[in-house]
Structure prediction request, 485 residues.
Amino acid sequence: MNTSTIDIGYMALAAGYLLLIIPILLILYYRVKLLKNLLVSILRMTVQLLLVGFYLQFIFQLNLWWLNLLWLLVMVVAADLSIIHSAGVTVQKFIFPLFVAVLAGTAIPLAFFLCVILQLPYLFEAQYFIPIAGMIMGNCLRASIIGLSDFFHSIHKEEKAYQLLLAQGASLQEAVLPYIRRAYQAALNPTIASMATIGLVALPGMMTGIIMGGASPMTAIKYQIAIMIAIFVGTALTVLLSIRLSRPGSFTAYGTLDPAIFAEKPA
Amino acid sequence: MNDSWRCECRNISIRFNERPVLADFNLGLRPGERVVITGDSGAGKSTVLRCLLGFVTPDQGRVFVDGEELTVESVWRLRRKMAFVPQEADLGRGRVLDVLHRPFTFKSNADLDFPETELPALLERFYLSEALLQEEIRTLSGGEKQRVAIIAALLLRRPIMLLDEATSALDREARTAVQDYFAGQPELSVLAVTHDAHFQELAHRVVDLQPPQGRKTR
Prediction:
């Protein structure tokens, strides 16, 4: 670990919370109904990050390949459930396909990043393995939610147009193709747009972290470029695999969308 | 029962959320026959058409197309004998010409050529200009969309036409043009859901569909 980053003392961090007085006063003054949510969120953020901090510290000290791999798998399951929840689909039909999609979408660019770009002697080095996996997966998660929701909800919403394709003689593959294209576009557009504006509008988190860790800005941008590529490859893989792998269980043998895939009946 | 039916619903019963929509329903369509289904809303008129296309699976009863039973295996083949014009024609996205071309890119229609030469005559017959072909389908009016949907169905040259309120958004002139066109195609078997009096006059048979219990045919 790089030791040149200044640590923040617990008392100093506590002082940081005082800054929150400004928005809380504004919320109270204008009677915006946010106070309860805000306080709950601050509490959750604090508890969750503390737990993760302690846990990661422990994992980093041990630095065992199987423990790091296990951590990755736990993250994949958490991402899997989060996608299912946000996309409004049922656990039974989606848990396995999405697990494979997120795992493959994360592991492939991760392995490339660690082996080819960083050329790590020890692939499972916690200091690199865990944060890079986390950054790729976080983006895969976000993109997969957009892609999966767009795909299934569009077909549901445009059921008539979709069924007309079937009536006109389309195979299932042909009928879903326009919806795959649209979902793919919706899911990948944000990543493509952020690549085009990166560095201009906001300094990306990874780059900032590496600079504060004591590395030169040039090292930082090389990492940033590499991670952007890894993220894009990861999202592109995850979104397509999410749709492709969940498709077989989501349509009836007659080619219509199985309404049982939705956790709640969509509007 | 009868092999001369183009398509047939045999003892069909369907319930949606415990509500019976069709109960022991029977209907056959002969080659070249025009049958109109009419009746109150909620009587299951559209369901009959959707059943024939395999979009709704009956709880009881069977569906036949050209004597062959509609099953998960046969449905993909049998759909190619039917052309469908849905209610509130939603044709997806794209230019009108692309929308008309699209079915011809499907593998199952590989044996069909896009009938370039028939298109202008159909447009003219249904009071549409050729300039419309270049427009985005979403910018069309309801009546224009309906006529494009009808043309899309006709271009596929399928022997069975399933029309679901296919002329509801048309003015009288256009509606008559469409209905007279169908009446002038003796080889087409037409099953049309409509309340339109003119279409009923042109039909060989009118089936008055009532919600389950108390259905009559005249």
Observations:
- The two ends of chain B are 22 Å apart (CA to CA).
- The longest helix of chain B spans residues 142-155.
- Chain B is about 25% helix and 25% strand.
